[in-house]
Design brief:
Blueprint lengths: L14 E9 L3 H10 L4 E3 L2 H5 L1 E9 L3 E8 L2 E5 L1 H5 L5 E8 L2 E5 L2 E5 L4 E5 L4 E5 L2 E8 L16 E3 L4 H16 L5 H26 L8 H12 L8 H7 L4 H8 L5 H19 L7 H7 L5 H12 L3 H9 L3 H11 L2 H10 L1
Antiparallel strand pairs: 1-3, 2-5, 3-4, 4-11, 5-10, 6-9, 6-11, 7-8, 7-10, 9-12
């Protein structure tokens, strides 16, 4: 459907209404599978396949889309193979009905009605869903603030009974329900407002997660939180921190002196966050290029060199120890290189 002009002269937003099924012969499910498997590996139970149905309404903006979806029970998996096929958008997903079991790059959760979750197609996604309904906003990477790109953001869930969850849920529903009455310019402004609000919620959530890591110095904690939000940026340098806090260069260097300097603190946090990805990944082999990109390394080789210099082993060798649950070797690495996070993971997982 093409963009059209209303009687009042206002240009409507392109809208696409797709219905497939109810289907007992398999034709509708085959069409659904054809376009879904551009992003995921899709499986149905025999019962869901026999009664397949699907309905979506999509509003297409220049750099984003907002859509409602209803369908039958299904399992969706997006691992390294599917990621390599393409698609690197970001999503804000609102669950309207159905309780789904999900694993977002190692972060397990149950997605309930009213919950809102932020997802990154550049990272692993596994969802086992019953019959469900949802609304989602899909955005290009270059239209959102840096906090959306942070590795810790993927899979961040705002529960339906939380203040941020309620506010995001109502805002997403209201935006979708109002799209027919908005011009393209008005919709873009409304979408920017939603993204700004979600960005603020994400920053608050990331600050809450790191409360156990506070240093006792509010300014240093603020600087470390800025680093965590911007780990993927190649230009995350002392100069950027100096500009963003703001601080003089001499004050910035004094602030980070207990941590071995600004550059050392940035590298340490990049490597520790990247190690956590290796600890929680379900892939047969770690996607080093994606891990490197998500944590601000210019290449997989640069990441591997830095990892080995810090932890005494390559990422592949370390991942093999994780997959085989070689607790003795992992404990030796943790003790030798003083990595408390790894020691805690060994105690909890092995």
């Amino acid at each position: 459907m093409n963009q059209s002009q209303s009687p009042s002269g206002r240009f409507k937003i392109p809208k696409y209404d797709m219905r497939l099924g109810p289907d007992t012969g398999g034709a509708a499910a085959a069409i659904y599978r054809q376009y879904t498997e551009l992003l995921y590996t899709l499986t149905f139970s025999p019962e869901a396949a026999a009664g397949f149905r699907f309905h979506s309404v999509t509003y297409q903006l220049p750099r984003a889309a907002i859509a409602s979806v209803e369908s039958v029970a299904q399992t969706l998996n997006r691992g390294p193979t599917e990621i390599a096929r393409g698609g690197n958008q970001l999503l804000i997903w609102l669950q309207l009905s159905g309780e789904s079991d999900a694993n977002y790059a190692g972060r397990e959760c149950k997605l309930r009605p009213g919950d809102v979750v932020v997802l990154d197609y550049a990272r692993e996604i596994f969802v086992r869903a019953p019959d469900f309904a949802s609304i989602y906003v899909m955005m290009e990477r270059n239209m959102v603030p840096p906090v959306f790109h942070a590795p810790l953001t993927h899979g961040t869930l705002f529960a339906a009974d939380s203040g941020p969850g309620r506010l995001l849920c109502r805002s997403i529903e209201s935006l979708f329900q109002t799209m027919d009455a908005l011009t393209l310019a008005e919709a873009n402004v409304a979408l920017d407002a939603l993204i700004t609000m979600a960005s603020g919620m994400l920053e608050g959530e990331m600050a809450r997660r790191t409360v156990s890591e506070v240093s006792g110095d509010p300014l240093l904690d603020k600087a470390l939180a800025f680093i965590d939000r911007n780990l993927a940026r190649l230009d995350l340098t002392p100069a950027l921190l100096e500009k963003s806090l703001p601080l003089s260069r001499s004050s910035l260097y004094r602030l980070f002196e207990p941590l071995g300097g600004v550059r050392n603190a940035i590298l340490e946090r990049r490597l520790e966050r990247a190690m956590k990805v290796l600890l929680t990944s379900t892939a047969a082999r770690p996607p080093l290029f994606i891990i490197a990109r998500d944590h601000g390394f210019a290449s997989g080789k640069q990441y591997s060199r830095a990892f080995r210099a810090r932890f005494g082993t390559t990422p592949h060798q370390f991942y093999d120890m994780v997959r085989s649950k070689d607790s003795a070797a992992l404990a030796a690495q943790a003790e030798r290189f003083g990595f408390e996070g790894l020691q805690k993971w060994i105690r909890e997982q092995i």
